[in-house]
Amino acid sequence: MQNAEQVEQFQNPLIVQSDRTILLDVHAPRSEECRNALIPFAELERSPEHLHTYRLTPLSLWNAASAGISTEQIIQTLREFSRYQIPQNIEMWICETAERFGKLRLVQIETKESREENSTGENSTGKNPPPAQEFLCLETADENIFKQIQNNSIAKKFLLPCERPNCFLLALTDRGIVKQKFLEFGWPIKDEAPLREGESLEINLREKTLSGNPLVIREYQTEAAESIVADRRPGTGFGTIALPCGSGKTIVGMKIMSMLKTSTLIITTNITAVHQWIDELLDKTNLTREQIAEYTGEKKYIAPVTIATYQILTWRPDKESTFPHFSIFHERAWGLIIYDEVHLLPAPVFRVVAELQAVRRVGLTATLVREDGCQGHVFSLVGPKRYDVPWKELEKNGFIASARCIELRVNLPEHLALEYAMASPREKHKIASTNPAKIQVAKDLVEKFSDDKILVIGQYLNQLKEIADLLKVPLITGKTPNAEREKIYEDFRSGKNRVIVVSKVANFAVDLPDASMAVELSGAFGSRQEEAQRLGRILRPKNLNKPGENFSGTSKFFTIITRRTSDEDFGSNRQKFLAEQGYSYKIILYNDLKDLDVLEEHALVQRT
In the structure, what pLDDT confidence band is assigned to residue 463 with cuts at 50, 70 and 90? Predict the structure, then answer.
């Protein structure tokens, strides 16, 4: 007979496998609690109906270690929720991998070589190290690790001998590239070298906003800011904060600015986001308009607080030219750089980030996943993930809106079936994404949910123009002039328009707090971060007290998928990150409006 303890163990939700995958039984007791416990140190791979698959990776373990989660805590979590005994090789691998973080430390130190350089201009190796004030030391307490690094090609290129045992010297300007390269080799560097101080700037948060409402900083926003600033000791002052859309990442950025009180460069995604940052800074801090500058394609000014776009920074006349606007990074003695939507950080900007390792820097994002696998660059150059909160936890506490995700599957018209079968993979994606049947479904949804404020989002401009013309509503694309774009957003906020059609320009950094429903027609292949950003457009807490509004209280995210095509596969991949956060997709085979009647059972349609 099995005892009660054994029976309870076999009801646990986790199965840890020897290939470093973890299966989560979503129907088991404590599955939601277990999912939240996994998020800090495991990556979601697949999320079908019954068993979700997570994987332990070096980067996921190093992120956990940088956040102060010990190997003992990770193993204890797995043991607590595991249905079977954890394979012994997994526990060993976790210990060996996680403990690599901190084995290599980057510190500032005065050395014999640097003193000789100051007096003679060269050292005993024949190489010329940089001056002492631009000199860092890469050290380890493990002689075996030292010998491994000594024979590494990166070490031979960037590191110099040091008088101290088990240490190397490197130029301050190589700080970022060395961290990036050693991460690729499986050796994350714990950066404890001091950061320089920027120009001082008295930044304080208001007690009341300009509208007269009290400014309330939520507990998690304060914790997120403190995770970056800490006590300003070595090893702090840089990192990434992951919070869902609508949870107030801008507030976190301003809180950090008020703690550091220094000149700040903020880089964000588009001009709309630039103007939103300016409005928020004026509304919630003591900064004056003269202290805040915009650096975009329209205006190029520098002030103690400057907000720029990634687009202007990565512009150049041709592929052979340099990036002329990179000079903004050196215009002032910046004390802080904020990378908004850091998961979108373009490759050319990574290069500059590698050079700015002595500056305090913070990345803000809803999700760190990148389909190009460059999240490791964010880790090494901007900084590891310092703070993360499960989306559902903030929903439960009312800080973001609750949401239901519904996937509507429609058939591909017969006249397109042969064309689809003969097409290349890229063309298959376009045919499935632009399935004309999706237009009628979108129209049905807009008409059925007449009390909602709706965003219709897609990838293909012809498709978006067709639905916008059919619904007789505004369309925003990358070609829409900024003044017109902001007028459309304002009309949406005010209620003058309840539906707008938007391209991928609305994937990020657009504040539309009253949007309560999104209809996704098409997307960028299987991009998980795009799906998360699009859901985020409707997660901002709603003002339910506006006269004439009849909102049910639950936001709705509809994604329309073409059946039996690559659309289904890409759709499944897009949903992975949200599944990790606790969102599930209800799938409906859609033929006409009657198929939506099932949603009535879940109070998605407000009854009057």
Answer: very high
Q: In this structure, what token pair is assigned to residue 22? A: 């973890």
| Residues forming a β-bridge with 242 | 365, 388
Residue holding tokens 């995770």? 227
String of b and e for 13-23 (b: at least 16 CB within 10 Å)?
bbbbeeebbbb
Assess whether pLDDT exceeds 60 at residue 603: no
Note the pLDDT tens digit of each residue in 437-448: 999 999 999 999
The pTM of the full predicted model, rounded to 2 decimals, is: 0.85
Q: From residue 379, how far is each of 75, 176, 178, 346 by CA, in Å?
A: 23, 11, 13, 14
Rg of the Cα atoms in the chain: 26
Residue 64 in contact with residue 188, Cβ under 8 Å?
no
Q: Which of 199, 200, 177, 197 is nearest to 189 (CA)?
A: 177
Give the confidence band of 343 by pLDDT, cuts at 50, 70, 90: confident
The Cα 476–Cα 485 span in angstroms is 6
pLDDT tens across 217-230, in order?
999 999 999 999 98
Partners of 501 in beta bridges: 456, 475
Q: 3-class SS at 450? A: coil
**DSSP collapsed to 3 states, 530-546:** HHHHHHHCCCCCCCCCC
- What SS3 string covers 54-96? EECCHHHHHHHHHCCCCHHHHHHHHHHHECCCCCHHHHHHHHH
Q: Distance (Å, rounded) from C-alpha 218 to C-alpha 254?
A: 13
Could you please report the per-residue DSSP string of 260-308?
H-B-EEEEESSHHHHHHHHHHHHHHBS--GGGEEEESSS-B---SEEEE
The pLDDT of residue 8 is above 70 = no
According to DSSP H, which parts of 332-373 are helical?
A: 347-355
Query: Which two tokens mark 357?
Result: 């390792």
Say yes or no to pLDDT of 209 above 80: yes
Structure tokens at 298: 């329209």
CA torsion angle 599 366 443 546 (round to 10): 80
Q: Where does 10-70 have alpha helices with state H?
A: 31-38, 58-66
More confident residue, 530 or 118: 530
Q: Could you tell me how far CA 385 lies from the centroid of its own chain?
A: 10
pLDDT at 129 over 70: no
Confidence band (pLDDT; 50, 70, 90) for 126? very low
Angle between helices 566-574 and 528-536 (to 10 degrees): 70
Tokens of 53: 């698959």
Tokens of 451: 């009390």
So what's the pLDDT on residue 300?
93
Q: Which two tokens stand for residue 62?
A: 């190093």
pLDDT digits (tens, 9 = 90+) for 27-55: 999 998 998 899 889 988 877 778 889 99
Question: Are the C-beta atoms of residues 537 and 515 closer than 8 Å to each other?
Answer: yes
Burial zone of 399 (CB within 10 Å; 0-12 exposed, 13-18 middle, 19+ buried): buried
The mean of the pLDDT values for the chain is 86
Alpha helices in 314-424 (DSSP H): 328-331, 347-355, 375-377, 391-396, 414-422
- N-term to C-term CA, the chain: 56
The CA distance from 483 to 485, in Å, is 5
